[in-house]
Amino acid sequence: MSHKWKKIYFCLAILIMILIFISSSMTYQQQTVTPELGHLNLNWLHRWLDPVEINYGGRIYSVKTVGFTEMIEFILRKIAHFSSNFLLGLFAYWGLTNWVPNKWFRAILIWLSCTGYAATDEFHQLLTGDRTPMIQDVMLDSIGVLCGVILASIIVRILERRAEKKQHHYSVPKSR
Residue 122 to residues 28, 29, 62, 89: CA-CA distances in angstroms? Predict the structure, then answer.
């Protein structure tokens, strides 16, 4: 991976952290998409969501308990938690290659740092009106980061093996 790409990935990781900070600065009313979801024809989702019950933070989320559009929004919010932190872990792992060359140390450092960032993000939500910080969100964010770091390390290993095979292929003298 070129030095240029490592810088780009590092910048993408910082950008995701900024977007997470901005998102946690917004109140629930500024973020909610339930009015927009109410205007969409999502009746086809009913048959999949009606039987779903999710116990999250000591509360049961289902179509029966929170309503159809609120259930969709709950799922979207949790997907956003996981995916933004997944990308943070992925990009941080690739972006910090020059600064932290040891792969195992880098993976652990990123996972712990990003989990700490998730915890401070939930604390930030405590200071924001109309938001509920949850330890379960920190755990979900942490799992997202861990999955991103694992995928990034697998991809790096695959690319390294390909490069080794290519180098070995070109360095082996051909018999005549």
Answer: 13, 17, 24, 18
